[in-house]
Design goal:
It is a single chain. This protein is an alpha+beta fold. The protein has one domain. The strands form two sheets. The protein has a two-stranded antiparallel sheet with strand order 1-2. It has a two-stranded antiparallel ribbon with strand order 3-4. Strand 1 and strand 2 form a beta hairpin. It is elongated, with a radius of gyration of 20 Å.
């Protein structure tokens, strides 16, 4: 009887650890995806080849917000940084976000802080 209790307790601990790791990994993956999108948005490939005009700072903020929502990350414009250097024809764009997300596992919760950016 005692061995069964230990096995059940061990399996329960393992299941809780897997759930916590799964939820944390999902947040980390969403952050990596958002960072990749920031790289893509900052490169402005379509504007560089003349298909569209270069984006304004607000265009970038709202594009980042839309991309983040795809990964269940909800950002406000003040959580984003848009910086421009270079010339009008050859701008270098820096995009960054700063946000926290809460992970809850059976009554226990903790906060993860992320700062994805378009820097290489």
């Amino acid at each position: 009887m005692r061995i069964r209790t230990k096995i059940v307790a061990g399996l329960l601990a393992l299941v809780l650890a897997v759930i916590a790791c799964w939820q944390t990994a999902a947040c980390e993956l969403a952050n990596v995806e958002l960072r990749d999108d920031l790289h893509d948005l900052a490169s402005q490939v379509s504007a560089r080849i003349g298909l569209v005009d270069f984006n304004t700072d607000n265009d970038f903020r709202y594009a980042v917000m839309r991309k983040a929502e795809q990964y269940d990350i909800y950002l406000q414009p003040e959580q984003m940084t848009v910086r421009r250097i270079g010339t009008l024809k050859e701008p270098i764009i820096y995009l960054a976000a700063d946000y926290k997300t809460h992970v809850r596992v059976l009554g226990y919760s903790f906060t993860l802080h992320f700062t994805p950016s378009s820097e290489q």
